[in-house]
Amino acid sequence: MNAPLALLAELTHRCPLRCPYCSNPAVLARSSAELTTAEWADIFAQAAALGCLQTHLSGGEPTARRDIVEITAAAHQAGLYTNLITAGVLLDASLLKRLVAAGLDHVQLSIQDADAANAEKIGGMPGAHARKQQAAQLVREAGLPLTINAVVHRQNLHNLPAIIALARDWGAARLEVAHTQYYGWALANRDALLPTRAQLDEATRIVDAARGGAMRIDYVVPDYHAHRPKPCMGGWGARFLAVAPNGDVLPCHAAQSITGMVFPNIRKSSLHDAWHDSAAFNRFRGTAWMPPPCQGCERAEIDWGGCRCQAFALTGDAANTDPACALSPHHALLSDALAAAATNAFRYREFS
Ligand code: SF4
Ligand code: SF4
Hints:
alpha/beta; globular; binds iron/sulfur cluster
């Protein structure tokens, strides 16, 4: 079995923004359930011993934790490349200076749109856009590489050329244009977010035309217009692991959406045992678990049957072929959802 390459450290579900496409679970972990600084330091040491090379410090908003500098230092001291995935609105010069001193290597800054008014409508936080611009400037002045993340959907795709221009203006070395993935809050807002086929085709054309310059552009295509699924996470339990704010160890950041599955918790299990021996990580490893039509399919070890979370969300059974595959008996669920996507009203992310 391979070692995991990367650890997604979901430090908290708290966030000043309320994005309707957030991939956090519909039931958010409260701060009282969060792992301590010492527990995270131990997790980073275990991850490095397991073979992980890098960690993504994420959330929610990771800088909402008062100990984010100590956590970053612990990840760095464990020998991990540290990437901060942030909305940027809490990142001031003082904090960034302390993060750099702690060993931070890279910043991924999320934006909701290039148009400030629409960005703040989507994110649900007035004043956020200007604070993000300031955060980008601070990151560049600190000499850190900057990636801009833009999650795109029906209500911001019309501004994609401006989003690409903004990423260049803000000094990004890389732009990730990611179509929304529909689990967590995004699934609850699917009708307001799904793009039309015409929007998707135009977005793909715009991204292709913008590529080739100094700024790298990565493009994550949507599943709902697809004929074959993506190799989600490079295969379940193959390259990636995540630790949720409450200590659950997950093969994918969305895996808690699969209700009924029991995941190991770092307070009761080592990372090594969770990765190698837990029932949850072994449940969908390899190809033996696959149903027809995946079983025997020439793409079985290419796309690994697609996304288990999407199979569960759409069919109620995580062991089904991802409906994004045209060979799935459930493929029509996607066109049904596209036909039903007729509202622009958001249900904002919130603690219940
Ligand atoms: S998607 Fe939005 S609400 Fe969710 S963690 Fe990121 S910035 Fe916060
Ligand atoms: S049948 Fe399964 S393995 Fe084959 S292309 Fe579809 S999802 Fe992939």
